[in-house]
Write a structure and sequence with these properties.
single chain, alpha/beta, seven-stranded mixed β-sheet, five-stranded parallel β-sheet, 14 helices, 17 strands, globular, binds flavin-adenine dinucleotide
Length: about 450
């Protein structure tokens, strides 16, 4: 699974999250030397035991960067494909529903994936390249136009290129682009996992809630989404990968999340500091008049699975003069998690940057030109994703009852016009770029999470 002959170019990657590790895998595959420095001393933090949506853009990036046995392992561990979306009222009255046929090529599907397993796949084979417990303090120019990374433990590393893949609080961004802002949107979410193992004993949970992404729209101020992770047997058992990579790590579950303005939850301070019982009580109060099924989903979700998040977003992606230092993923384009685009965009960045760095390593492109081309493209697709996901979050929590009523009426009409419906809710694989015009225009007109 190693790359071919190593190039002279040495790439320092700061941050071993989804984007940084995908980049390291891709560079290794292309024979470019890369070293990852991750601040966390633990390769698999316990907080990662949940699932995320990886869409066609994320899958294509993984296919490009992972060596074939690891791609096969990823396909084997991915959960069921996302087969469509439906919008319902808080009483579970249908508004619109769209089904997506399975795509022919594996990578063109959307999958729900264990985040912990995905990280395990991305770490496989990189033992010698990933250094844990190394927190970047800053960077500075080194001799011959190279760059020196300085770590909080006093150690240093020198490379030709430095990539800040260090997430939302990025040290690299703060030094490279001190004016770039990440805004707290004052929107919060409380969610939990509901185990599906004994679903047979729970006839109260209707099938549609277990098969499609469901978006619940009450009259205003908040919304809920419900999705599922189910392990799926897919493809032949891959060979040449460690057995524990293929072992299940999370149980099949439905995941729900209630999103509202932080003040709307009616609790002082940071919701993340609340005991799980209080989180559950807050949500139970907010869904009091909703369908009994949704109330029960909240009430019966195990307390230890409750979690709250605070939603942030980059203000805009600034222009800057290209050097041998750049940024990828949340470090440069933090976006709301509502459309599930953040990780997918980080993976897309990694694949794009990997291609350009490989050309630089082969001497076909100057390093600055390689980074400049990546930055120009990333600004376009990631800028769109940041805008769309922020608008979506703000509309989700809007107090505009008239607007929400109009949007619901529009969905009911669109449900009877198949071409319009297909256009509004095309899966990511059908798009040339990120969300198209109808999604941007409508009040909440996107199915992408
Ligand atoms: C609840 C929730 C659900 C989500 N669901 C989805 C989804 O379904 N689909 C999707 O595509 N996205 C989703 N996202 C977004 C996704 O998780 C992020 O966009 C993605 O993790 C970004 O990847 P990254 O590599 O840029 O950053 P990260 O994954 O955050 O990795 C950054 C890494 O850098 C390390 N680091 C930070 N500072 C330093 C330092 N100074 N020195 C060294 N290392 C450092 C961190 O420890 C971390 O490991 C979700 C987010 C949340 C909060």
């Amino acid at each position: 699974m190693t790359g071919s002959s190593d190039s002279a170019l040495r790439v320092l990657v700061i941050g071993g999250g989804l984007g940084g590790l995908c980049l390291a895998q891709g560079l290794r595959r292309r024979g470019v030397r890369a070293v990852v420095f991750e601040r966390d001393p633990d390769p698999t933090p316990p907080a990662e035991r949940y699932s995320i949506d990886i869409n066609a853009f994320g899958n294509r990036a993984l296919r490009e960067c992972l060596p074939p046995p690891l791609w096969d392992a990823y396909v084997a561990i991915a959960g069921q494909s996302l087969r469509g979306v439906r919008f319902v009222t808080e009483r579970l009255d249908p508004l619109i529903g769209v089904d997506w046929p399975a795509a022919e090529r594996a990578e063109d599907n959307d999958w729900r994936v264990s985040r912990h397993k995905l990280r395990q796949v991305l770490l496989t084979g990189l033992d010698a390249q990933v250094h844990f417990g190394r927190k970047l303090a800053g960077y500075e120019p080194a001799r011959d136009g190279r760059v020196r990374a300085v770590f909080e433990d006093g150690s240093e590393a020198v490379g030709d290129v430095l990539i800040g893949a260090d997430g939302v609080g990025s040290r690299v961004r703060k030094q490279l682009l001190p004016a770039a802002e990440v805004r707290d949107l004052r929107i919060a979410a409380i969610g939990a996992k509901f185990p599906l193992a004994q679903h047979g004993e729970r006839p109260w949970l209707p099938g549609p809630l277990l098969e499609r992404m469901t978006i619940v729209l009450p009259s205003a101020s908040c919304g809920m989404f419900i999705t599922q992770y189910r392990r799926t047997e897919r493809g032949t058992r891959p060979t040449g990968v460690p057995d524990d990579l293929l072992a299940p790590d999370i149980e099949d579950h439905a995941f729900w999340s209630l999103i509202a303005r932080r003040a709307g939850f009616g609790a002082p301070g940071d919701l993340r500091d609340l005991p799980s019982g209080e989180m559950r009580d807050l949500v139970a109060g907010m869904v009091r008049g909703w369908s009994p099924v949704l109330r029960r989903l909240v009430a019966d979700s195990p307390l230890h699975t409750f979690a709250a998040i605070s939603i942030q977003s980059s203000s805009a992606i600034p222009q800057w003069e290209s050097t041998n230092v750049t940024l990828l993923g949340d470090a440069i384009h933090t976006m709301t998690p509502l459309q599930g685009l953040g990780g997918n965009t980080a993976l897309r960045d990694a694949a794009r940057l990997c291609r350009n760095l490989a050309q630089a390593a082969e001497g076909r492109l100057d390093v600055r030109a390689a980074l400049g081309d990546y930055e120009a493209q990333m600004r376009r697709y990631a800028g769109d994703a940041v805008r769309v996901s922020r608008r979506y979050a703000e509309q989700f929590v809007s107090d505009n009852r008239m607007g929400r009523a109009g949007f619901k009426a529009f969905l009911r009409v669109a449900d009877n016009i198949p071409p319009l419906k297909r256009r509004l809710f095309a899966p990511a694989r059908a798009k040339a770029g990120w969300p198209s015009a109808p999604q941007s225009r409508s009040a909440l007109g996107s199915s992408r999470r």
